[in-house]
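Input/output pair, single chain:
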Amino acid sequence: MKRIAILHMTLSRIFPFAVGIFAATELAALALALLLPCETNAQRRDPTAPNAFGLIPGPTAVGFRLLEGEDRSRVVTGGSASTARPRPVRTYLWYPARRTGQPMRFARYAALADDDVWPAEMVGSLHDKLAYSRRPLARGFGPVGYQALLQRPVLAVENAKPLAGPFPLVVIGQGFWIEPAISLAAMAEYLAGRGFVVATAPLVGTNSPVVRVDAQDLETEVRDLEFVVARSRQLSFVSRDKLAVMGLDMGGMAAVLLAMRHRDVDAFVGLPAGILFEHPSGLPRSAPGYDPLALRVPWLQIMPAAQATPPPGSKAPSLFETATYSDRYMLLTPNMNHVDITIDGLIEGHVPIATGPAYTQETATGAEAQEAFRPYVLNFLTAFLARDADSRAKGLAFLSRAPEETTPGWKMTLEHRPSAPPSITFDEFVEAVIAGRGDEAIRKLRSVAAVEPNHVLLSESTLRRLSANLLFTWGLGKEALPVIEFLIERYPSPDARALLAQAQIAASR
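Output:
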């Protein structure tokens, strides 16, 4: 106990942020965790662990909540019901908690997954026919084995009292074949025990519980995750200014679109997904808002090496090549498939069921892959979301090490490409022009032309509309002059010169 007390005092000095986050008992638990022997940084699976996922607990306990909700801005029009209903959105939330209460049984997760399918009044018999017990994990155990699995505990304690926080929020998108919100529960419990709030929603189609890989259902998942972000941020222990998005398969497509569209996203973790090169569906490249140069947050992409090469006949560069404004990391792994990354691949004792190419298990147990890449996810999120400089520095130091040092025995490579200085955005340009810094904004725009010739602000239509809007709608003739002069420089025409004359008259008044 004396050693724990000494380390408790040391932690309080080295990590003063922890005193504000953890109560004395939790800080003592963190001290104890650091005193325990550690096999490697990879947090090796504990074969004797009672929890179903074999996770080694983190410094804090893990709480879980289900937040039922409806997005009344959208309606569900399909299913067996003839009337439109508000779209149900279920937010699953894992969070750092006080050590009270008994962990849930896996049966609770399974029951929750049953109700990810809309109720019978919306979809009739589909609710019962799409039960979790019919999915490959349950079939791989058989009736007796599955009943035994249902009785095994997980780490999370339902409705446990949260620690004060606020903690960074990590929102996860689920994928095709792995639609239930519990599919990445092991990752969620792992991160929640180490200082993050993790939230997700099940992947459900636009008007049917069965998902299509198309633009409409991808946009539906994006909007569901936006709902999850807003709902989670209503809780006092959830940070409102530290947000990461993560996703697997179709959820990775949704996550990258969120990172491109929303400036409040601070980091992006891509689990294996069809985002590096063209996907047969055309997604996510055909989706609204897709723009590699709009990805301006740090990005960690985890991908089997075999899937990091362009498809036959493709000459298009990868997203990793074109997202030049992102500080990006590529972690290439041995072969693993989607199932290896989920709880289906992690839970021991069942016979893997090969139901399709994405559901073929490549690793012996699933633990090999997850134990290898989870520390990279944790340290990446710490490096870019932690509030204190010491934690951020430690996260970056981990990312700077060769994978053979951090995870011996599983061959991986890590490539880092620093971000290029970002170009001026439309919003920044307009703000500068209206503030009277038009000449400065134009200088930045000129520097963009060489590297980003298709920048929206370099198009004739954008410059013309913006000039007219400033001059005629808002009466800002003086402020519009640099923009109109740049328009004439790039696209000389009688109309543009007439616009300049009118702006000069307005500026002289």
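The CA atoms of residues 400 and 416 lie 9 Å apart. DSSP finds 21 helices and ten strands in the chain.
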